[in-house]
Design brief:
heterodimer; A: five-stranded mixed β-sheet; 15 strands; B: Rossmann fold; 4 helices; about 40% helix
């Protein structure tokens, strides 16, 4: 176009025919000539030609003008290129942010993160590894990228042939994740590094960058000291580490990025972009990890709540049963006295009456019926006793301990080595339920043995002391903290993966039902000691000490009633 | 023939025991509570006490402790409707247990056993 009448195209406003280079979106430049000159004409061939014409017709000033213009254009080109790259980076960042907004699963987050680092022409790393901090160390978690040039060529071809967009690539599915992870699984499983290992120590010890250009991205060339495994994997290839750091500066993980195929170095702009991406990923990751931890806690709480409810129901049931048992015993007791009197007196009447008296049969019938009632009552009591109560007889604690030690020695013969120190001094018998007392002591000995899973020494002693029988069970296990020891007697508390948590609680209840007390003293690292104190009633001990025959032995008949 | 103190708060039970024991030729005194029991034991010597475990307002076992403390020479047969009295170690202070029954033979046997043991010792 150039010359139009006695003017030039780049001087004319409001004529749609003067410039064929304006797109449909640029109609506004028709009227705004100066802006059109800036945005369109500067690079336009028409203007060049006009300027060349001017040089032919004009003086040396035009020569200079042309040179200046050329120079200006040359300087603009890289700026425009940078702008284009920044546009692209911004676009990826926008996609990434958007895509991570709802992501909570660490797998999804790291997948999308590595896609952002490896997709497109701007950053476009050839390959990326994601390591996560777990159990205080960095562990290989995920990798994305081709294994070799051949695979890379195939992938790039597919991407360009199908017009795959960034949004497509960012679409996450567990299957794709698993497929990609599988490619590098062997390496990922072996990647385990201490946070202080070089070069990670350097990555995580960097202070927050005050000047952004200092950055947190660390370049690792072949000359840097590396864990042997990383050296094996990367060989001479340079790679970059971007740390993933929580809002309070905790290391969450790290991304390892490389251009093992193209060998492209990275620019300062790239570093800034990498940090920005990493920030986005770290925020999402922290949120995802916090969510997972929270969900686990909620599940634990729900489980604990459910167990508490079950236990409460058990306790209520036990209480009800105890109340029923007590009621049955009370009731039958109240009924029995009159029945005994009726039956006993009828029996006497029967004996006193003349053999031919018709009343004799009546008296006999009354006595028989009373006996029947007594039997029924006895059955009731037997049932209630079996179900709800205990039976006490004089028992010797030492006999129970002897039996228990014998049993446990046999049972633990093939387990960890236990040294048994049993010292039982003579003690008077006490009134107790033998089976219950055995249970009580067995719980305590079992606890001691279980505490010594690596072996140790078990001390069991009994002796008489100040009107009481003392039973001491001491182990050389790892002991317990004061806090844990305090909880030990709470029902349903257990430090063992299996077990009802009722063992020691039950033991304590039994000892207390005998009027005694059970104390536990523990020291971390020095084992635990259980001391049981069972009272010997003053009279009983006198009677026992005075004469053996003074002690009553319940006869078989009386016991059975 | 012995002199026996019967402690029970139920009149019919006392009647029954007195009937069967006097028939065997024993001399029987009946009381119904702890105070009367201790008074009777202070007042006159007894060869045997038959003691109910459940007295109306007091525990027969407490009374048993008192009797053993004050009159250790007098044997005691504890009587109860059921074996559950053995739950308390104090019952062990008695010389014998006896479960109440309309059939008096078990009681009479215990009485004879305790009395003969006592005679053998003294």
């Amino acid at each position: 176009m150039a010359r139009v009448g006695d003017s030039y195209c780049w001087l004319i406003a409001d004529d749609p025919t003067v410039c064929p280079y304006l797109g449909p979106q640029e109609a506004h430049l028709l009227a705004d000539v100066r802006r059109r000159n800036r945005e369109k004409c500067l690079g336009c061939e028409e203007l060049r030609r006009d300027l060349a014409d001017l040089r032919r017709t004009g003086g040396p000033l035009f020569e200079a003008l042309t040179t200046i213009l050329e120079e200006a254009l040359n300087q603009c080109r890289p700026i425009l290129r940078t702008l284009q790259i920044k546009d692209e980076l911004l676009d990826i960042l926008r996609h990434l942010s958007h895509s991570l907004q709802l992501a909570l699963d660490p797998e999804e987050i790291l997948y999308k993160g590595l896609v952002a680092f490896t997709a497109g022409g701007s950053l476009g790393f050839n390959r990326g590894f994601a390591l996560l901090v777990e159990g205080g160390e960095l562990r290989g978690y995920f990798a994305l990228g081709p294994r070799d040039g051949e695979e890379a060529a195939r992938i790039w071809q597919e991407v360009s042939a199908h017009g795959v967009t960034l949004a497509d690539l960012l679409r996450y599915s567990p299957e794709v994740f698993a497929r990609e992870r599988e490619k590098f699984r062997a390496w990922l499983e072996r990647f385990r590094f201490a946070l202080t290992d070089p070069p990670f120590g350097e990555v995580f010890s960097l202070p927050l960058p005050r000047a952004p250009e200092a950055g947190r991205v660390v370049e690792v060339g072949p000359e840097k000291p590396l864990p042997e495994l990383l050296r094996q994997f990367y060989g001479p290839v340079t790679f970059w580490i971007v740390p993933l750091i929580s809002h309070d500066e905790r290391p969450l993980g790290a991304l390892l990025l490389d251009n093992f195929l193209t060998g492209r170095p990275i620019s300062t702009e790239d570093r800034l972009a990498m940090e920005l991406f990493a920030l986005e990923i770290a925020v999402a990751l922290e949120r995802g990890l916090a969510y997972a931890a929270l969900r686990e806690k909620v599940e634990m709480l729900e489980d604990a709540y459910r167990r508490i409810r079950e236990h409460q129901q058990t306790i209520i049931r036990l209480r009800e049963e105890a109340a029923i048992g007590e009621m049955v015993l009370q009731l039958t007791h109240t009924i029995k006295n009159p029945v005994v009197a009726i039956g006993g007196l009828a029996r006497h009447l029967h004996k006193k009456l003349e053999a031919h008296s018709p009343c004799r049969r009546f008296a006999d019938a009354i006595a028989q019926e009373a006996s029947r009632l007594e039997e029924i009552l006895q059955d009731f009591v037997r049932f209630a006793s079996l179900r709800y109560a205990v039976e006490r007889h004089p028992v010797n604690v030492n006999e129970i301990l002897d039996l228990l030690v014998h049993e446990k020695r046999e049972a633990t013969r093939h387990g960890p080595p236990i040294e048994w120190h049993v010292d039982l001094a003579p003690v008077p018998p006490i009134l107790a339920d033998e089976r219950q007392l055995y249970n009580c002591l067995e719980n305590i000995v079992n606890n001691a043995l279980e505490a010594m899973s690596e072996g140790g020494a078990l001390f069991i002693e009994s002796r008489r002391s100040d009107g009481a029988i003392l039973i001491v069970v001491r182990d050389t296990g790892p002991g317990l903290s004061e806090e844990a020891a305090r909880h030990l007697f709470k029902p349903f508390f257990t430090t063992k993966p299996t077990g009802s948590g009722l063992g020691l609680y039950t033991s304590k209840q039994i000892v207390e039902s005998l009027g005694g007390e059970l104390t536990l003293s523990c020291q971390l690292g020095q084992g635990c000691e259980v001391v049981i104190r069972l009272p010997i009633p003053e009279f009983a001990s006198e009677v026992q000490a005075g004469s053996e025959s003074a002690r009553a032995e319940p006869s078989e008949e009386s016991r059975e009633g | 023939m012995a002199k026996i103190l019967i402690v029970d708060d139920e009149p019919s039970i006392r009647l029954l025991y007195t009937t069967v024991l006097t028939e065997k030729g024993h001399e029987v005194v009946e009381v119904e509570n702890g105070r009367q029991t201790l008074e009777a034991l202070e007042r006159e010597p007894f060869d045997l006490v038959i003691l109910d475990i459940r007295l109306r307002a007091e525990s027969g076992l407490d009374l048993l402790q008192e009797i053993v403390a004050r009159h250790p020479q007098v044997p005691v047969i504890l009587c109860s409707a059921y074996v559950s009295f053995q739950d308390d170690y104090t019952s062990w202070l008695a010389h014998s247990y006896c479960v109440k029954s309309s059939d008096p033979r078990a009681l009479l046997e215990e009485v004879e056993r305790v009395l003969s043991g006592r005679a053998a010792r003294s």
